[in-house]
Design goal:
- This protein has four helices and 13 strands.
- It is mainly β and about 250 residues long.
- The chain has a single domain, classed as outer membrane lipoprotein receptor (LolB), chain A.
- The longest helix is centred in the N-terminal third of the chain and has 13 residues.
């Protein structure tokens, strides 16, 4: 990730084969919105409809006054496989983060460095685990989440098994789309995630702009999705080191 400042953006057409190339339609509001619990249930059903995902995107990271940019590929295969890969202008991998079940691996090939599990948080410029959890985390269900109306929004507050505040979700009620999510640790925001420009892809509502802000690190990450492929067949070997060359197939 540290070398992103020297990277020329990769041509979008060369990053991922098989993703939708035409811009899909925007999500249409539903007049009046709905009951808060029904709105939250709709968001959960939308997320559950995605069992695998392939996306290509542009990313821009800011840390203090420093700014870096790159193109990337994201792969998701529920329940436990996730990969985010950043590429150079010549197609070389410059950042590669993979999870398979309980284990995570991060590689910085141009720097000749690799890290596993707990060491990743120390050496990563941003927290790839937050992105992994965004796509792979278990649905806590209504027993741990309370939804209530708040003007044009539905506010959902979720607690951990001990009753401490774990997440807040802000949903635009008339489109039933998640616009902001805050994850907490010990009562303090750990990461703020914002979602915008929702479009319908294969019947699933997906955001084409995602922003992650880490208040305690003074780090932010802006992601602009170029294309999504919903529920593609993704072989397991795409989620290990041997599959690196095949990620963009």
């Amino acid at each position: 990730m540290r070398r992103l400042a020297t990277v020329t953006l990769l041509s979008a057409a060369a990053v991922v084969g098989g993703c939708t190339s035409l811009m899909p339609p925007a999500v249409t509001p539903r007049p009046g919105g709905g009951d808060p619990r029904a709105v939250y249930a709709s968001v959960r059903r939308n997320a559950a409809a995605v069992t695998s995902l392939r996306a290509r995107f542009s990313a821009e990271m800011r840390r203090g006054e420093e700014q870096r940019a790159a193109e990337g590929v994201l792969l998701v295969k529920k329940p436990d496989r996730f990969r985010i890969r950043l590429l150079s202008a010549f197609g070389f991998t410059i950042f590669d983060y993979t999870t398979d079940d309980a284990h995570a691996h991060m590689a910085l090939p141009l720097e000749g460095k690799e890290f596993s599990d707990a060491d990743i948080a120390v050496h990563a410029s941003f927290s790839p685990a937050e992105m992994r959890d965004l796509f792979l985390r278990d649905d806590p269900g209504e027993e741990r989440c309370i939804a209530k109306a708040r003007g044009a929004e539905t506010l959902v507050q979720c607690t951990d098994p001990d009753g401490a505040l774990e997440r807040q979700l802000f949903i635009q009620s008339d489109t039933e789309t998640l616009t902001r999510e805050i994850a907490f640790t010990d009562g303090h925001p750990r990461v703020v995630m914002e979602f915008a420009e929702y479009r319908s892809v294969s019947g699933v509502r997906l955001p084409f702009h995602i922003a992650l802000t880490y208040p305690q690190r003074n780090v932010s990450l802006q992601i602009a999705a170029r294309a999504y492929e919903v529920n593609p067949v993704l072989p397991d070997d795409l989620f290990d080191g041997a599959g690196a060359a095949a990620v963009s197939r």
